[in-house]
Amino acid sequence: MSNEKSTIGDNIKKLRKQRDLSQDRLSKLADISHNTIIKIESGAIQSPTMDTAQKIVKALGVSLDDLMK
């Protein structure tokens, strides 16, 4: 097992900060739990469900490709 954070989590964090959003605000915009955002950004969840990923990209105004880069 690797301790590296997931690329998806890193990208969410980077995109969220570019938009000046808190984790709490993003969770509300995406209609997912605050805890889920924390877990994805920390790498505890490395592969969020497609449904969760789609909610996040919609809230951030980016494409799924942007999240996966």
Question: Can you give a write-up of this model?
Answer:
With 69 residues, the chain is an all-alpha fold. It has a single domain, classed as lambda repressor-like DNA-binding domains (434 Repressor (Amino-terminal Domain), Orthogonal Bundle), CATH 1.10.260. 65% of the residues lie in helices and 0% in strands. The protein has five helices and no strands. It has helices at 7-18, 23-30, 34-42, 50-60, 64-68. The protein is globular. The model has no long low-confidence stretch (mean pLDDT 91).
Features:
69 residues; mainly alpha; 434 Repressor (Amino-terminal Domain); 65% helix
Structural class: mainly alpha
The CATH level-2 architecture is identified as Orthogonal Bundle
Global Rg: 11 Å
Helix-strand topology string? HHHHH
Give the distance, in angstroms, between the N- and C-terminal Cα atoms: 22 Å
- Level-1 CATH class name: Mainly Alpha
CATH H-level homologous superfamily name: lambda repressor-like DNA-binding domains
Largest sheet: none
Strand percentage lies at under 5%
Average per-residue pLDDT, rounded, comes to 91
How many β strands by DSSP?
A: 0
The number of helices is 5
Described by its quaternary structure, the protein is single chain
Q: Can you tell me the number of structural domains?
A: 1
